[in-house]
Amino acid sequence: MKKPVTIKDLSKHLLLSTSTISRALTNDKNIRKETREKVLQAAQELGYKPNLTAVNLKLGRSNSVGVIVPEMITPFASQVLEGIQEILWPEGYRVIIAQSEEDPQTEKKNLQLMEQFQVDGIIICVCDQAVNQSLYLQIQQKGIPMVFYDRISKEMEGSQVIVDDYMKSVFMVEHLIQTGRKNIVHLHGPSYINNSAERFKGYKKALEKHKIPYSPELVIKTGLTFDDGMNAARQLLESNLPFDSIFAFTDTLAIGAMNYLREQNIKIPEQVAVASFSGTTLSTLVYPQLTTVEQPLKEMGRTAAEMILNKISDKSYEDKTVVLDAKIKIRASTTV
């Protein structure tokens, strides 16, 4: 493999000092125009490329931003990342992506890795609202700004990009009620995720508002995967509890439940209506198409990226919470 051309190689080729070569390459005003042009021409001819890592270390920055996502199985993270890239790439920033795999210890290792890479900032969707709080604080105290999106650390101060999980859940459950549903199941996400608690509160508030008694047995605490959704639906059918609709924590859980119900020849929405929260492209790829709260995922990414750029350029930039509007998308899974 051919070795990369260095400043020393240019120095030998042009019989100039390495300091003169270096200053010519950085457009130093004290270097004569003729010398600069000669150096740049030789650099092009020999295929010299600057060592960006060395340059960035000299300047005290890496021109990179770390992004940590809980999972890459669903389109959720990819749509957010698309928005992040739209903002950061034109500004000359590389995006380093790491997946926590819904494991706080993996998230911790990823955060430590970002520190080692000396990223200029970190954008993160946390997998557990409590476990790594001290590490978030430690990283920010070292001068690496952070922006949290979607899943946040509730007790942690910092810049955040979220939607109103509580109110949008109220509206979604109200939609089910307005279609005549009264025995509404909630597939409750893990308690260590702040969004899960907010969506559950919205579910209960809608029932209370419409004077429908809250039944704890209609709340199924579950995980985050398609299989978890299927298992929750199986548990419901085996319990023989009467239910006419499901409001799921995420599209993933809802689709898992829908798949199992259809396997059991239960008609959707005629016998059981299904609604959820997330609004990924998956909601339009299933049959029937899924009624969901559609989060503005690309906008979430763009907003988080703009905030991290502000925090990188201005260390005194104040933390703030941006609440984006999510849309209720009514589709065939809840309406005949």
TrEMBL record:
<dbReference type="GO" id="GO:0000976">
    <property type="term" value="F:transcription cis-regulatory region binding"/>
</dbReference>
<dbReference type="InterPro" id="IPR001761">
    <property type="entry name" value="Peripla_BP/Lac1_sug-bd_dom"/>
</dbReference>
<keyword id="KW-0238">DNA-binding</keyword>
<feature type="domain" description="HTH lacI-type">
    <location>
        <begin position="5"/>
        <end position="59"/>
    </location>
</feature>
<protein>
    <submittedName>
        <fullName>LacI family transcriptional regulator</fullName>
    </submittedName>
</protein>
<dbReference type="Pfam" id="PF00532">
    <property type="entry name" value="Peripla_BP_1"/>
</dbReference>
<dbReference type="InterPro" id="IPR000843">
    <property type="entry name" value="HTH_LacI"/>
</dbReference>
<dbReference type="GO" id="GO:0003700">
    <property type="term" value="F:DNA-binding transcription factor activity"/>
</dbReference>
<dbReference type="Pfam" id="PF00356">
    <property type="entry name" value="LacI"/>
</dbReference>
<dbReference type="InterPro" id="IPR010982">
    <property type="entry name" value="Lambda_DNA-bd_dom_sf"/>
</dbReference>
<keyword id="KW-0804">Transcription</keyword>
<dbReference type="InterPro" id="IPR028082">
    <property type="entry name" value="Peripla_BP_I"/>
</dbReference>
<keyword id="KW-0805">Transcription regulation</keyword>
